[in-house]
Amino acid sequence: MTEGRPSAAGSAPLWERDAELATVARALDVLCADQSSAGSLLVIRGEAGLGKTALLAEIRRIAERRGCAVWSARGAETLRSVPFHVVRQLLQPALLSLLPEEAREYLGDWYDIAGPALGIAEPRADKADPQYVCDGLVAAVRRLSRRQWPLVLLVDDAHWADQETLRWLAAFAERLDDLSVLVVVARRPGEVSGDGARLLDAVAAAGRPVHNLSALTPDATAGLTRATVGRHADDAFCREVWAVTGGNPYDTVELLAKVRDSELPPVEAQAGELRALNRAARDGGLVDRLKGLGLEATRFAWAAAILGTGITVDMVAQLATMNDELARTCAELLCDARILTAPEPSAGTRRTDGELEFVHPLIATAVYNSIPSGVCTAMHGVAAQMITERGRGAAEAARHLLKVHPDDDEELVEQLREAAREHLAVGAPDAARRCLERALAEPPLPEVHAHVLYELGCATLLTDPAVTIDHLQSALGMPGLDGDRVDAVVRLSQALLHNDQLEEAVRTVEAEAARHEAGPVRMRLRAFQFMWEGIHGETVSPARSRRLAELASTCAGRDNAERVLLILRAFDAMTHGESADEVIDLCDRALVNGRLAPGLGWTDTEWGMELLMMLGSAYTYADRLDRAESLFAEARRVYTTAGWHGVHLSLANAFLGLAYRRQGRLRDAESTLREAVVLAERVGRRLPLYWSATCGLVDTLLARGRVKEAWSVAERYGFAPPYPSTIVLPDIRSVRGRLLLAVGRTEDGINELEAAEKTAASRGGHNPVLAPWSIDLAQALAGQDPDRAAQLAADARRQAERFGTDTAVGEALRCAAALATGQRAVQLAARAVTYLEASPCQYEHAAARVEYGIAARSAAELGRSLDLARACGAEHLAARAREVLETGRGLR
């Protein structure tokens, strides 16, 4: 019926699978025809026993006959807690076939990131960003696939795959368009929930079509019955086989094996015996059959089920406490009874002598579930000890330790803490969390308990601020944290900030500062208090600004504490629109020879990245965009190299995009901000970092004249109230107001800009470049309330002159020119061009020159503005200048 399908009983799962195999054949045709063809993904879904594994085995045979490299892996119910277990199965054989230097060459920069997760390299740090590791694994497969074309990847029992593998598989499935690989995934429906179910759904969404396997029809069951027990099997007997098994291929094969072994005549008169035989072939009957093989064979099977993977006769013998000869005898008995089997050899895969696996996952599950509870726990404990004694690390032993009953075991707590550190080092925080949660259940000794909670909080710091908050608050509520206490408070305040709980972040560090005498510790906590208060989006106490100014006036930048205060003072002065020259001086004094001081780097944890974002932002709005770009580019480079692909890299991209936007490099800004949004989404929507990336992208699209796209982005990413409690750069209400005006919602836009005005007033100052609401509001009100518009423009100009940058003054003059008429408008527009030509903000310069060219009717000025607009990527400005030039009416 189907290519390569034998007619023996073992082929039962391939009966009536012609459609699935035809789809695979077509996919292989495309794959093998051209190395540049797009990849494809097929999902095979079916209940237990419907033949998914046998179908994948047949796909392997067909693919290998056509010259494909085939890599395969399989999830296991008892191994779901082992991070990267399935992806390691998939890739390790190919990687281990390479010399170490070859593997490093093929993986390139990703070797140090993906290598530890794959078990081929040592971790290079104490914590790896899980998203970066996932990206590294995707890149690793992409590079290896180009070497191995044509390549087929088979993933069986994906519903039992570990979370880390599912995250990689979902990410890889999204990138198959430009990669010539065939991926086939087999899974059961249901079985998992939460993140696992979401990731499996993402995989299914990438694969078309999804094949839902069905049970055998009565005709197919009859054909299989006669192929197994003889052509003389009558119709009534065959119908009863179908009725008893429901057409499940696995159940049918097992039942017919019992029929054959018992020499039951396949006739209607004996059909009544089939139900009893079926009960003996599965579930409780399987367990009874196992017991019938003897106590030693049963103990051997139990030990194999405990190990789950890497099942070898010698490992099972040690776990089951039997000698090698008895173990080999038991293995033979279990193989003869179709409970265990030797794995089928496949191309490129090396097998260990004495290696075994269960004939079917259903058998493995049934055997594992039949182990008495106390025996199961004890055997897991012995297995953990065996793995530890063989030097295979705490992380590998952890899955067994997780099954041991809590018993006040101090050594087990330390093993689990070590396992958590190993998991974090390879980018598996979920696995680390499970280990630490289990350590808490032991429980730890009182003097250790708070430290375990602290480590649990740190394990989720890069990925889940809300979970971090719970654990760190619990740790701080217990005695014994001692030397880690201040670090825990700082990390808690950072997590609160990134979870949009800014007021609580302020209270947390303020309360801890009150516990300490004057000195470096208290200074550090007070600095964080100033920092969090300084980025509050709604209100800032004038008294706080005065205290900060007084403290900073005594600082010369002699140590990091003084440098921190200088940065905080610079940011505060910038947000309030004080002298830009003073802002730059404060920032410069916080550096050492123009660079960040040791201990104040982007990955240093004592002071945090937020401080350096404030430093770069102060430079950005004080017109020192060269220094801002250098800082943020360094942040992106450092975080990329360190593998911090969560909050840190998202913010680095968001602020680098802001610097590009201010420079007028709109194309670079857009691409960088889009990357920031993608990274921010992985951490979670509605968090401050998400707002920064989204707001920057909308602002940049508006600057490029792509209003519809800006609105689409705003709608897609929820760029609308309620806003976060932190400052968002660029100013969120100003950008939202400008967007509303651009799409014709004038009244809503005015309301949004007036809300921005109230926020600026509550902060006790105004920087017309940082929050340009007054300029946009003045132009929006020009027709309906010219007096108020004029007053707003005058206030913006006064504040711009106080701040003193060319950009601020030039933008205020552009606004005044837009409200003026006649020769006065021309004069103001000319002055705006003069200031903005001297500023580093080339988009604003281009816009001012277009406006001046139109007001002065100057073809030369419009020509210059056209070139500037094109260089910036501001298509609408270029189109406006070109339209006036082409009509040519009244131009000089």
What does this protein look like?
Keywords: ATP-binding, Coiled coil, Nucleotide-binding. The chain has 892 residues and is mainly alpha-helical. A five-stranded parallel beta sheet has the order 2-3-4-1-5, with helices on both faces. Strands 6-7 form a two-stranded antiparallel ribbon. Strand 3, helix 7 and strand 4 form a beta-alpha-beta unit. The protein is elongated, with a radius of gyration of 34 Å. The N terminus is likely disordered.
Which properties best describe this structure?
7 strands; 892 residues; 44 helices; elongated; TPR-like_helical_dom_sf; mainly alpha
Record the SSE blueprint:
Blueprint: H1 18-33, E1 40-45, H2 52-65, E2 69-74, H3 85-96, H4 100-107, H5 111-118, H6 130-148, E3 151-156, H7 163-173, E4 181-187, H8 194-206, E5 210-212, H9 218-229, H10 235-245, H11 249-262, H12 274-281, H13 284-292, H14 295-307, H15 313-319, H16 324-336, E6 340-341, E7 357-358, H17 361-370, H18 373-389, H19 394-401, H20 410-425, H21 429-441, H22 446-459, H23 465-476, H24 485-498, H25 502-513, H26 520-534, H27 542-553, H28 560-575, H29 580-589, H30 609-621, H31 625-642, H32 647-663, H33 666-683, H34 688-703, H35 707-717, H36 732-742, H37 746-762, H38 773-781, H39 786-803, H40 806-819, H41 822-838, H42 842-856, H43 859-872, H44 875-887
Parallel strand pairs: 1-4, 1-5, 2-3, 3-4
Antiparallel strand pairs: 6-7
Helix pairs in contact: 1-2, 5-6, 6-7, 7-8, 9-10, 9-11, 11-12, 12-13, 13-17, 14-15, 14-16, 14-17, 14-18, 15-16, 18-19, 19-20, 20-21, 21-22, 22-23, 23-24, 24-25, 24-26, 25-26, 26-28, 27-28, 28-29, 28-30, 29-30, 30-31, 30-32, 31-32, 32-33, 32-34, 33-34, 34-35, 34-36, 36-37, 37-38, 38-39, 38-40, ...
